[in-house]
């Protein structure tokens, strides 16, 4: 496993990190969560990413029990704030009161005194940005988080925050980024580069599409993410027939390099020095080890050119918000 510096922080994160979005929020049993987490440690993964809203605290609770058995300095822990945490529709957002409430709740569930990275989970257009920034800075001042980040903010929102609090406010950005969703390269990557903000990318395997398990013209595999009514809507952007055909064109490229398709996809994401880590999910330990093996793989210029040709016009490259992100900035 190789490691990369996270923005302007002193954190060295593993190139492959373990995320808890779909798996450890209640989707799999605790014993599987435990096995995958221990496999991550064995593979050299030191960066674990979750959020308060994943299973409304279930993912944090599971990792709190598991990670508390490891020395606190042996892993880097990130969580996020935002998202509806109860049946009360007001129990969400990035207000000062909500951030103060949710950081304490997250720390209790995670069984730790602090998180290494606390991230604004998408932008809250209903709250003045000054209020959100001050509340996040207070979390750091109180020693409850070491560094701050954000997920799926627009260039306008990033610049507005930096203009208020300076370029050292954030050390990380968490955008959706993969061979099929290249939109962050257009604007978000350049803006973050100005301020030494690294990227921790989510869905680098395009929610499983870049594993090759979905084939054009064939029924969806039973029990797969795309077959789930809950997830099918969020996946439509990377599940077109054209995208599935392009993925099949990538297979011989991977095989020619002695790689699996997921290894090729993860190495492609990590070709960008701005990307500090690629977040992967896993429901089995062998998946963790397989994904971790992508660290350190370098793709030649010829291979990158072949990938571009295979993808054709399929990837989303225009400045486009990921699902659920919102535009705009509110000031006091």
Q: How confident is the prediction overall: mean pLDDT?
A: 93
CATH-level-2 architecture of the domain at 3-208 and 272-297: Alpha-Beta Barrel
CATH topology tier name of the domain at 3-208 and 272-297: TIM Barrel
**Proportion of beta-strand residues:** 5-15%
User: What is the approximate shape?
Assistant: globular
Structure annotation, total helices = 11
The computed structural class is alpha/beta
Uncertain parts: none
Question: Could you tell me how far the N terminus lies from the C terminus, measured between alpha carbons in angstroms?
Answer: 45 Å
Give the strand order, joined by hyphens, for the main sheet. 3-4-5-6-7-8-9-10
Q: Please estimate the helix content.
A: 25-40%
Tell me the name of the CATH class of the domain at 3-208 and 272-297: Alpha Beta
Count the E strands.
Answer: 10
> How much is the radius of gyration in Å?
19 Å
CATH superfamily of the domain at 3-208 and 272-297: NADP-dependent oxidoreductase domain
Largest sheet: 8 strands, parallel, barrel
Note down, in words, how this protein is organized.
This protein has 332 residues and is of the alpha/beta class. The protein is built from 11 helices and 10 strands. Helix 2 links the parallel strand 4 and strand 5. The longest helix has 16 residues. The radius of gyration is 19 Å and the shape is globular. The model has no long low-confidence stretch (mean pLDDT 93).
């Amino acid at each position: 496993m190789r490691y990369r510096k996270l923005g302007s922080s002193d954190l060295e994160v593993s190139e492959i990190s373990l995320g808890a979005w779909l798996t450890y929020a209640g989707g799999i049993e605790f014993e599987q969560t435990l096995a995958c987490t221990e496999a991550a440690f064995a593979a050299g993964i030191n960066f674990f990413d979750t959020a308060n809203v994943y299973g409304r605290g279930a993912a944090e609770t599971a990792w709190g029990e598991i990670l508390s058995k490891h020395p606190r300095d042996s892993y880097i822990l990130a969580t996020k704030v935002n998202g509806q945490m109860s049946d009360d529709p007001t129990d969400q957002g990035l207000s000062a009161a909500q951030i103060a409430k949710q950081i304490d709740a997250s720390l209790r569930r995670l069984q730790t005194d602090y998180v290494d990275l606390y991230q604004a989970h998408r932008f809250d257009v209903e709250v003045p940005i000054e209020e959100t920034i001050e509340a996040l800075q207070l979390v750091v001042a109180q020693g409850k988080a070491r560094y701050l980040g954000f997920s799926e903010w627009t260039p306008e929102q990033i610049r507005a925050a930096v203009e208020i609090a300076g370029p050292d406010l954030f050390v990380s950005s968490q955008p959706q980024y993969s061979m099929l969703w290249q939109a962050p390269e257009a604007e978000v990557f350049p803006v973050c580069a100005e301020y030494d903000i690294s990227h921790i990318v989510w869905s680098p395997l395009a929610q499983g599409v870049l594993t090759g398990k979905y084939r054009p013209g064939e029924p969806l595999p039973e029990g797969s993410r795309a077959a789930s009514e809950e997830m099918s809507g969020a996946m439509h952007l990377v599940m077109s027939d054209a995208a599935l055909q392009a993925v099949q064109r990538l297979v011989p490229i991977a095989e020619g390099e002695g790689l699996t398709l997921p290894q090729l996809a993860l190495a492609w994401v990590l070709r960008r020095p701005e990307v500090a880590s690629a977040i992967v999910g896993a429901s089995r330990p062998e998946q963790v080890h397989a994904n971790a093996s992508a660290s350190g793989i370098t793709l030649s210029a010829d291979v990158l050119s072949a990938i571009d040709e295979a993808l054709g016009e399929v990837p989303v490259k225009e400045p486009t918000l990921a699902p659920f992100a919102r535009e705009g900035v509110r000031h006091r």
